[in-house]
Amino acid sequence: xxxxxxxxxxxxxxxxxxxxxxxxxxSDKMVFxxxxxxxxxxxxxxxxxxxxxxxxxxxxxGLHFIGGRRAIxxxxxxxxxxxILEG
Length: 87
Description:
single chain, 6 strands
């Protein structure tokens, strides 16, 4: 699976950080993707794909540093079913 997404991290006073990435693996509870954003454990982030079939908040539950990028494991903040079939 490789789904293009936009990842947004809120940073106080309406400002945020955003980047385009791709989900390498996803389930109804978790997503895995690479990022250059300064995400740390327990950070909240927002995911959205171009057709809107995926738009959800998630929390960082695992990271692994690879060069200048981070491999991110995120768990959805709320139950989010069937997005894989729609994406």
